[in-house]
Every structure is written in structure tokens, then in C-alpha cells.
């Protein structure tokens, strides 16, 4: 009966997909695209951060290794003597 009269609004169906001006229309589509772009960028940044963090720990570089390298360079330049080098080396290893 309603379709014969050209009215389909009584069944909750309006003109167009978004309700013909009653919804958020094309602005909702822009918000949806921006949301998914933000989610994808966030995932990419998280993966990048994990790769960089894993690469740094897998190279075996830690603070004690770099400290030992600095100590070796100071000994090689003559800034410290052998006894001081050995003492500081023991402190770093423990």
C-alpha cells in the first residue's frame, strides 16, 4: 500500500544510503577514512619501533659493552694506566 503511493519512509527506509540528510552523510565517510588511515599509520609506526628495538638488542650492544669500549680507548690513548684499566674493567664486568 505504501509503495503504491510512492512512500517508503514509513518502513524506516529513506532516500539514499545515509538517510537523505538525516545522518552525517559524506562527512561520515571522511571521518571513517581518516580513522582507518590513523590505525594503519599507528600499526606501521609500532612495527618500525619494534624492529629498531630488536635490532639494537640483537647486535649485542649494551651499556656495559660500550663502557668497556670507552675504557679500552682511554687506555689506548694513555689516559689511564694498566692497573687503573684492570680495576675499572673488573668493576664493569661485575
What does this structure look like?
Helix 2 runs antiparallel to helix 3. The chain is rod-shaped, with a radius of gyration of 34 Å. It has helices at 25-58, 63-77, 82-93. Helix content is 65%, strand content 0%. With 94 residues, it is mainly α.
What features would you highlight for this structure?
single chain; 94 residues; mainly alpha; 3 helices; 65% helix
Percent of residues in helices: 55-70%
* Radius of gyration, taken over Cα atoms and rounded to an integer in Å: 34 Å
Number of helical runs? 3
Mean pLDDT: 77
Per DSSP, what share of the residues sits in E-state strands of 2 or more residues? under 5%
Tell me the number of strands: 0
Low-confidence blocks of residues: none
Write a short abstract of this structure.
This protein is an all-alpha fold. Helix content is 65%, strand content 0%.
